[in-house]
Amino acid sequence: MASLSLSLSLCQPRRKRENIREQSQIHSVRVLSGIRNSVKSCSLGRCSVVEPVPAATDVVVDDAVIREEGKEKDRVLRVGVICGGPSAERGISLNSARSVIDHIQGDDLLVSCYYIDCNLNAYAISPAQVYSNTPADFDFKLESLAQGFQSLSDFAEHLAASVDIVFPVIHGRFGEDGGIQELLEKSNIPFVGTRSNECRQAFDKYDSSLELDRQGFITVPNFLVQGSHSTESELSKWFAKNHLDTNSGKVVVKPARAGSSIGVTVAYGVADSLKKANEIIIGGIDDRVLVEIFLEGGSEFTAIVLDIGSGHDGHPVALLPTEVEIQLHGNADMWEKDAIFNYRRKYLPTQQVAYHTPPRFPIEVIESIQEGASLVFQRLGLCDFARIDGWLLPSSVHISPASEKKLGRTQSGTIIFTDINLISGMEQTSFLFQQASKVGFSHSNILRSIIQHACLRFPSLASYTSLSSFLPRRSKSKQLTETFPKTKDVHKVFVIFGGDTSERQVSLMSGTNVWLNLQAFDDLEVVPCLLAPTSGYSSKTNMDEKELDVKMKSIWTLPYSLVLRHTTEEVLAACIEAIDPDRAALTSELRNQVMNDLMEGLKKQSWFTGFDLADEPPIRYSVEQWVKLAKEVQATVFIAVHGGIGEDGTLQFLLEAEGVPYTGPGVKASKICMDKVATSLALNHLEKFGVLTINKKVLRKEDLLNTSVHDIWPDLTSKLQSKTLCVKPARDGCSTGVARLCCLEDLAVYVKALEECFLQIPSNSFSKAHGVIEMPSPPPELLIFEPFIETDEIIVSSNAVNGNANRLIWEGCSRWVEVTVGVIGKCGSMHSLTPSVTVKETGDILSLEEKFQAEAALESCKQRIELIANTLQLEGFSRIDAFVNVDSGEVLIIEVNTVPGMTPSTVLIHQALEEEPPMYPHRFFRTLLDLGSERFNKNI
User: For an engineered disulfide with 52, which of 5, 144, 514, 520 has Cβ 3.0 to 4.6 Å away?
Assistant: First the structure.
């Protein structure tokens, strides 16, 4: 369960209410109208198992993938994208697959999707299923929505007949260790990336270290712990040899074959090193573990290398490297113990890491990194592309005399290459896209270039590379408008994200996703805009005062490359860095060098028609200036700012005052929905229609701080007639500051968090188990207390029963479940998408009280959701969270989110894909944009 839990926490939609129930690991499973529930009851009549049976309309494999033999292909390249795999990084693999599929689709390229589960079972899946939330979602739906293969050899036989080339995006085992490559080689199936033998050597950190040493590179001294073969005395000798204290010497312990970040940790001394090595082995991550010297004082970097040679004649070129800066604030002890670039820092939004592309190193060091990375790529026999990680050690760090003549020495320090990533992460903001965008490649251009280059190695694919099949996206830059002139009917779209709330990082993910998807339309010019974070969200409630305050905030229009960051603070820092004259000059010089190197090889390829991104600076505006600019260029604003001024009507008010079209509900509806009390009051009269509201008690923060919890708690439980309460900010987004309180001690913890202005309440701080709770900053002035609603739990069990691996288990008898549902449309005629129910993950079979009657109540539930939306005068799109009675369809409203999460795997994407016909992300976001524009009588 450990790896699955990690994947769940990583890949769930980030913008959801804090799960305050007893177990915190959840994921979403669709309540599909096309799925029938068959029930098998146990002899006691208490335990039932819900099995999804596929509807007749489910699509598994695109019909166009399997063509009639001998039929003309029309020069369409058939690409099979394979994701998943057995490693703990398979959640990242799903994110990578979504990104690849989003950006390579076109009339000249047909994509088929495949999934490998943790047991190496292969499935053909529909493109829609790629947008499932987590690996657990994949596994649960496989029986009903996917076409399984009897064996990997059957899978390979299918691929040989159905695709022209495979693009593996499996990270870690079976993806980078040569496993999938060997399978493809045996069936003579062309594929992107390095061959199997070279993969095996490069993926194993110990073997690759030995090979790099043989090739003349400086390497990090290391020791291999393998099963029970290594003794404490042998490791002690290694410590002594490398001048490390056997009791406290600082080392890095990491699996030899588990990617670049899984299981990586710091250890102190021999005993601690062996303990952590054994934990990796016992945990099943790897049975080969590396102990390395901790590189004190070093700076970490990573470089993408692109092969631009012809066929088997390699010509690797390193793009602009990225410096990885660990930023641990105010805790020196934590810096000592945990200053490594681990899985969490690599893949989750965090202010503990900053990236600098190019690095803040002397130019000769940067050039040496590029030359060295290209040489590593060449000497290890890599193909197409790879990511190579390493360290720059300052000159003051002692280097073994034996390394004096090895590759990597510079006047400014020593360069050491440590990790080779054969299938680099391809999430939307990954290093591949960050570095490629710095030298003129959009997502589509770099991915298609990699695929086209791979085709050069296979004679059977020669016809696909003889003519250009890719035209760069219409450039958004002033410099390139002469090369790619605008059409008459191109309309501007400003996508705004960021802000000051605790949801600003999710806002960045949402805005980035919207921006990238809308670029698929040639009639749109989409400009990403950052609402810069400041010291905190204004607590002013008077609209005139808030308007003056907000107008002084800053909004930056961003060039392509600066959007591809993990946090809003990082985007802002990159903007400031980009307008520094010295920094800008260095970046431009290095960019031009790389582009010249790339063009030397790419100009020989008929399929490459040029770079499609220009080098432009960000531009800073006040909010007032930005609104006027939007009006001047007749832009429609796509609002992706979660919470704060993005959802409380402030931004809508400013845009409406200037007649600027925008997405989502208007000023009045936004203000009402942001205030949870106002939302309840607006819906109170709908009780006779089956729409219920929860009793609430509003308290001022000042009163909570100045009154004893011994007085407050009994008063609240008495007035609300509940022993367990839910507390949440009265005016904030849907996920911050929400907690379950079971006793006055819990209330005391919450009040202290308000008093001390905590940014987070640590997990399990209350009497009932819970995860980390993000808190609003600054603390809210008003808080809502309401009865905690006990709901039945629906559980996905991973234990097999009667041969079936995944079952829905029902626990409880209240007949109420929690759902979330998107609504879309025009004011007064909103349409409810199919609701999603939240379920839990467990390895145990729990008792099932009754059959889940979702379908019987589904239509009445949707009708009531539409009634709620129309009563609140919602328009465009919103998300409604509620409790639903699965027998009657009655709805107990929780809250309404007028700017819901729009990340790549968010629940709204799932629900849009269940529409008939399915609405894929680019079409979904275009529909939302059009609804906003049409409201202001502007046709797009």
Answer: 144
Strands 524-531, 491-498: pairing is: parallel
Distance CA 395, CA 774 (A): 42
Closest by CA to 928, choosing from 831, 825, 801, is 825
Closest CA to 648 of 742, 542, 740: 542
Contact (CB, 8 A) for 499 and 641: yes
Name the one residue in this structure whose structure tokens are 């085992």: 173
Closest CA to 809 of 46, 135, 118: 46
* Contact assessment for residue 777 and residue 759, using Cβ atoms and an 8 Å cutoff: yes
Selected residue with higher pLDDT from 9 and 204:
204
Q: Give, rounded to a whole angstrom, the gap between the first and last alpha carbons of the chain.
A: 48
Closest to 305 measured CA to CA, from 319, 324, 322: 319
Query: Which residue in 506, 420, 510, 437 sits closest to 472, CA to CA?
Result: 437
Backbone dihedral region for residue 889 (phi beyond 0: left; psi -120 to 50: alpha; all else: beta):
left
**Residue 175, C-beta contacts closer than 8 angstroms, at least 6 positions apart:** 85, 87, 93, 168, 169, 422, 423
Q: DSSP letter at 688?
A: G
In the predicted model, what is the mean pLDDT of the chain?
82
Contact 876, 665 (CB under 8 A): yes
Report residue 325: phi and psi, to 5°: -105, 120
Where are the extended beta strands (E) located within 679-791?
691-692, 697-700, 725-729, 739-741, 760-761, 773-774, 782-787
CA–CA distance, 751 with 774 (Å, rounded to integer) = 14
Residue-wise over 440-467: b if at least 16 C-beta within 10 A, else e? bbbbbbbbbbbbbbbbbbbeebeebbee
- In the prediction, which pLDDT does 425 show? 92
Q: 53-105, pLDDT tens digit by residue?
A: 333 333 333 433 333 344 444 579 999 999 999 988 888 899 999 999 999 98
Taking the C-alpha atoms of residue 576 and residue 619, their distance in angstroms, rounded to an integer, is 10
Q: Cα 632 to chain center, whole Å?
A: 34
Distance CA 349, CA 566 (A): 5
CA distance 391 to 340: 12
The residue length of the chain stands at: 940
Residue 758 structure tokens: 């905590």
Q: Position of tokens 């009402």?
A: 672
For residue 14, what are the CA distances in angstroms to 138, 403, 537? 18, 47, 20
The pLDDT-based confidence of 796 (bands split at 50, 70, 90) is low
797-854: pLDDT as tens digits: 655 444 445 566 777 777 888 889 999 999 999 999 988 886 665 433 222 222 233 4
* Edge-to-edge order in the sheet of strand 77-84: 147-148, 122-125, 109-116, 77-84, 165-168
CA distance to 31, 822, 871, 899, per residue, from 866 (Å): 17, 10, 8, 17
Do 640 and 511 touch, CB atoms closer than 8 A?
yes
Residue for token pair 């502007």: 938
Residue 429 burial (10 A CB sphere; 0-12, 13-18, 19+): buried
d(CA 177, CA 314) in angstroms, rounded, equals: 21
Burial state string for 87-109 with b = 16 or more CB within 10 A and e = fewer than 16 = bbbbbbbbbbbbbbbbbbbbebb
Res 649 pLDDT > 70: yes
Instruction: Give the Cα separation of 141 and 872 in Å (integer).
Output: 35
Cα 753 to its chain centre, rounded Å, is: 29
CB contact at 8 A, 373 and 447: no
Which structure tokens are listed for 610?
């040029």
